[in-house]
Amino acid sequence: MVVKLATMGVVFALDPTKAGWFVLICLLLYIISFAIGMGAVFWLMSSELFPNRLRATGASISSLFNWIANLAVSITFLTLIDVTSRPGSFWIYAFLGIVAFIFCWALVPETKTKPWSRSSATGRTTGIGST
């Protein structure tokens, strides 16, 4: 995902007029990698992080904030291009993808080996704040 964003930044920095198909392929590969990677993480984690009694409310609130963040990216994308240029905007998003990966690796708890009923934020097993 990050590699495709950085690649698109490089293509836009060089000359995107002759790389139309390459940009399209990079964009499609980015969408595929996001859908099977970071895009799915939110929907899985929002249902696993909360204890049973708070699961519906917690997942609803986190879903609301996810859609607000999606709206913010959509609204600010063209302004970001105007401010930083096309390559700069893709490089910023690639950097944010790296930050998101480090955040997930360091702070998101592992729930793979835990039963569904015990998966909650209080039962951390990995990460910086693990018990």
Protein described:
The chain is an all-alpha fold. The chain is built from five helices and no strands. The two termini are 31 Å apart.
What kind of oligomer do you see?
single chain
Q: Shape, please?
A: elongated
For the termini, the CA-CA separation is 31 Å
Radius of gyration from the CA trace? 18 Å
Q: Please, how many helices?
A: 5
The largest pleated sheet is described as: none
**Percent range for β-strand residues:** under 5%
Assign a percent range to the helix content.
over 70%
Order of helices and strands: HHHHH
Tell me how many strands there are: 0
- Give the low-pLDDT segments: 124-131
Question: Structural class of the helix and strand makeup?
Answer: mainly alpha
Rounded mean pLDDT score: 82
Explain the layout of strands and helices.
Layout (H helix, E strand, L loop, with lengths): L1 H13 L5 H17 L1 H11 L6 H30 L1 H22 L24
Helix pairs in contact: 1-2, 1-5, 2-3, 3-4, 4-5
Main traits of this protein?
131 residues, disordered C terminus
Would you summarize the structure shown here?
This protein has 131 residues and is mainly alpha-helical.
